[in-house]
Amino acid sequence: MSIHDWRPALGGAGVLLLATIPASAYAEPISTDRPDFVESSLVVGAGRFQVETSVAHQNDQASGFKSQTLSSPTLLRLGLGDVLEARLETDGYKRDHVDGESAVTGWSEIALGVKWHTSDADWLGASSAVLVHVDIPSGASEFRGKELRPSLRYVAEWAPADRWSVGVMPGVIWNTDDAGDRYTAALIGATAGYAWTDTFRTFAELASEDIGGGDRAPTQVRFDTGFALLLSQDVQLDAAAYAGLNRDTPDLQVALGLSIRW
Questions:
Q1: Which stretches of 20-133 are DSSP H helices?
Q2: What is the pTM of this model?
Q3: 233 near 24, Cβ under 8 Å?
Q4: Comparing 17-31, 32-46, 98-112, 241-255, which segment has the lowest mean pLDDT?
Q5: Residue 1 CA from chain centroid, whole number
Q6: Using an 8 Å Cβ cutoff, are 164 and 192 in contact?
Q7: Contact 134, 111 (CB under 8 A)
Q8: pLDDT in tens, 213-261
């Protein structure tokens, strides 16, 4: 989740508890790349391993057909150093059902990548990161793309006021259509979050993908909102809803997620 600063505020009463709180309690709280579209600019840290998984349900109605998709989006993150992490991302096991047709099930393809935390405060005053991924044709044939499809994203985050955070993420992907022909498309997302307490935050964002894809990939635009709840320094529960804002975007998706760090 791009709203990444979970540092607890210790009042005077909290000082009296210092002797009883384990040292591990002072580690930075977990920072996740879900549930919003805009990634966090932070990495998991050297030697740390993090699982971010979820269950998602999507409803759509287009050209007179209703469809429902159930998936399990999952991101695995391994810290290679203080500013670098390796990543494996997938939509997991997927079930796609169109009314009047048999459901299609199988494993989604995977994407491999790296995230480089480039700055705590860059020339724009933002915490920033660069992500390089490549989608690999894998999994069930019904959910498999064509060829290797690399992408590049840049993340910038700010904390303009107490408890507020904002972030933007532009990017580009070198994709393929159903025939295997290459095309280039852009993406962008902008998010704003608010920390109601030290453990509970909400967010709202606008996101757009396949910008400039033309007939090969019509532009999608959506509005997202949701929350993240810290259960401990290393465990986060989240939920989100994603609503399509044009006819080329799925109508509605809801997701419930769990992230754990070791």
A1: none
A2: 0.88
A3: yes
A4: 17-31
A5: 7
A6: yes
A7: yes
A8: 888 889 999 999 999 999 999 999 999 999 999 999 999 999 999 999 9
Q: Say which residue the tokens 């030697």 belong to.
A: 47
The residues near 204 (Cβ < 8 Å, ≥ 6 apart) are: 191, 192, 193, 223, 224, 225
Neighbours of 179 (CB within 10 A): 7
With 0-12 / 13-18 / 19 or more C-beta atoms within 10 angstroms meaning exposed / middle / buried, residue 252 is middle
3-state secondary structure of 12: helix
Task: State both tokens at 61.
Answer: 């109605």
Tokens 């635009």 label which residue? 221
Q: How far apart are the first and last CA of the chain?
A: 17
Say yes or no: domain 29-261 is CATH 2.40.128.130. Answer: yes
The model's pLDDT over 158-216, given as tens digits with 9 standing for 90+, comes to 999 999 999 999 999 999 988 888 999 999 999 999 999 999 999 999 999 999 988 88
> Which pairs with CB-CB distance under 8 Å and at least 24 residues apart come from 165-169?
165/2, 165/3, 165/4, 165/5, 165/192, 165/193, 165/194, 165/195, 166/190, 166/191, 166/192, 166/193, 167/2, 167/3, 167/38, 167/41, 167/191, 168/38, 169/2, 169/37, 169/38, 169/39
- Domain positions in the chain are 29-261
224 and 242 Cβ atoms separated by less than 8 Å: yes
DSSP string, 55-66: EEEEEEEETTEE
